[in-house]
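Final report, Chapter 2: Outcomes

The project's central promise was a pipeline that accepts a single protein chain and returns its three-dimensional structure in a standardized token representation, suitable for archiving and comparison. That pipeline is now operational. To close this chapter, we reproduce one record exactly as it appears in the project archive, with the input sequence first and the structure output second.
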Amino acid sequence: MPLMLDALDALRASLAPHYDIERQIGAGGMARVFLAVEQHPHRRVAIKVIAPELSNRLLRERFIREVDLSSKLSHPHIVPIFSAGEAAGLFYYVMPYVEGESLRHRLLRERKLPLEAALHVTRDVADALAFAHAQGIIHRDIKPENILLSGDHAIVADFGIARAISAAGAPTLTQTGQSIGSPGYMSPEQALGTGDLDARTDVYSLGCVLFEMLAGEPPVPSLAERVIHNWGALESSDALRRVEGGVVRAVKHAISKALAPLPDERFATAAEFAAALGGSAHRSSVPARGILASRRGRRIVLGTGTLAAAAAAVILAVRRPAAGLNDRRVVVAVIENHTGDPAFDNLGHMAADWVTQGLAQTGLVEVVPSMSVMTASRASGGHGPGHLDAAGLRALGRETGAGTVVWGAYYRQGDSVRFQVQISAAKDGTVLRALDPVAGPLGQPLSAVEALRQRVMAALATLFDSRLNRWATTASQPPNFQAYQEFIAGLDRFVQFDMRGAIAHFERASAVDTAFRLPLIFAANAHMNVGEFAAADAIGHALERHSGRLAPLDRAYLAWVLATCRGDRAEALRASRAMASLAPASETLYLVAEDARALNRPREAVDALVALGPDRGFTRGWWVYWDELTTALHLLGDHRAELKQALEGARRFPDNPQVLMTQVRALAALGRADEVMQRLAASVNLPAMQGWTPADGMVVAALELRAHGHAAAGDAALAQARDWLAGRSAAEAASEEHRLRVALVSYIAGRLADAQRQFQLLAAPDRLGRSDSLGAAGAAAVTGDGWDQLDYVGYLGVIAARQGNREPALRVDRTLADLKRPYSFGRHTVWRARIQALLGERDVAVGLLREAIAQGYPHAHALHTDLAFDSLRNYPPFVELLKPKE
């Protein structure tokens, strides 16, 4: 329905002067899209306006609340939502304007996409869906119109909008039969409106999109017959011609499973769907077929002409000239029969074929098909028992172009068959990985073959997956492959700071393979990252009882966890150095940097981070790398280098408010106050980040400016924080996180009576020792405090000291001294040091600070901005304490 001109004029007037609407650039069933210019900051945006007939039935607050939930998604393949609201009686939301075109526009122009391009789009969308699903957000409207193509990437728009409209709608929205979504791409359960939807509804929609990209038309399902009526359009598609048969089968199988009418018959996750498509368009994958696969494909019949063509393809594949061996191309040689019984000859062929299929499904390597291996074996002179020596490995590598060979033999031991397999480099026969033997009943050898496949799949994954290759040469025996997959899923969550999700995957990995203990060490680390040190400590001590079974690197990692839980930073640093020695140039260097910085060894921290680099292994894409590096440079006083690294971090993470603060710290130290204020103005418009608000950044600026001799500019930054906090809604103002920020600003500004009253309300005596939410994590990062009841009580003691009320201050000091709270890591001792410093007891204060650091206090880098220690700035023992150590 067109948006009437008077309504458009009213919308323009309502959104001015913040937005200047230029023109309409798109329209759909539920909304129209306008190109606009946002005035502050000055940027081009797309404003999507919900159709009037829907807007009239939406509940404003609920719509905005639902959109706010989706706006927290931050992912390379998700179009972020800047804001949402109501104007001229119409609901709208604001997104960045993305240069490029939608997938719908490309399909209108080209009708079909080449297979490689279609798979690339599908994987990008699946990556976005997997991330959103992990946050509990279902898209509900995946279709070509909502997939934007920009550069080499696909980006998904409108995350959570269908949910927002549905959740905010009046009951009549569904009672009138109006479904939210796009009928041609809806899953059956979504179309029927049966219950809550989960990730599998988006998997179905993505399957429809992939079908359309390849077939030139969307699928036409029949729920009654459990078939796709126009499956032939996919079978005959040009996009699937001249492509290896294994790839085609894998893609068709994946589509058929994604389009299963019942959710339980589909892939459980978008990541599983993407994995079933294979790692690239030329990889071989031969999975079992899905329920909607074509009937023609259910029975494989090779006529003479087909067989000849297949043989010719194999000969061409193995005879093609190669510029060199590809280490990521793997050939599984026929496993040699050393049983002495020719009746078991075919077992070696079957095992090699089964392992080959399993490797193809991982998507981690390119695999030489089994038929090619047999042909290559004959071309290279064949091999039997004892013949696959270094020369045989080189010959097999030359014939297949594979740089990595899986080979071995099987033996008879009584009523059992035992496989002994290793992985070698084809160029020189070097053993890359020797696997433990795998055995099974001679009468039922398939159980041993399956176990062998799991071993080889996991071993190759650890060798060639960039997130784990640093562990491969030192880690313990490869796990069951299902356990490995859970471990990788946990790592994906870990690097995205979804620690709860990571812990669940790590625990499942260990449950699937109880001998695989590395995930539990990572689980302990994840528990520490959310402040659950008791759980981490318990895991660590349980593992310590079996540490003899761990590889050296794993033992060092466990030692690091236990030392960190004890608050023994010096021992933790020794453990992280040991890890870095065992796995040079690996992610373990990040732990070295953390521990070194906590012990005021910033030069060692910088050296470790520079050696690591920001693009290696599973720390790739971590914004905290730049926070850690710039903090270390700040402590060294090398503020120009600090600013250079902060700018590089901002280039990589332009929308991250905490990365922006790395510039603020450097600019404040350099005295460039005007530029600090510019950064603070920009921070207000950045996407929201859990636990961080613009007020936190303004407090950072105020403290740093004051510490570096720019008190007036610091006061101006603090005034901005006060104004921003005053502008929050009534609901926000009622939250504990907001109240503690207001109390902190009052304390810094010297409005001590206000601060005292606010902290008294926060510090109820019956809550002492109880930790609260992570909503104020940003404020904690600013001051180095934990922001729970211990800190509220600490502030009351410090305020009393600043007011000159010695006895109340000393009562708090005694309360803190008597506090027996595990895993405090010296926080209570730092509060005592603050109180003593403000009471003029400088020697006592410095002594307490040394004690706190010995107890594991990790935030000594924040002491130079702490107001309580102003009287110690030129006190030699304090200066010596803060001086970087070598």
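Archive annotation: The longest helix spans residues 115-134.
This record, like all others produced under the grant, will remain available to the consortium after the project formally closes.
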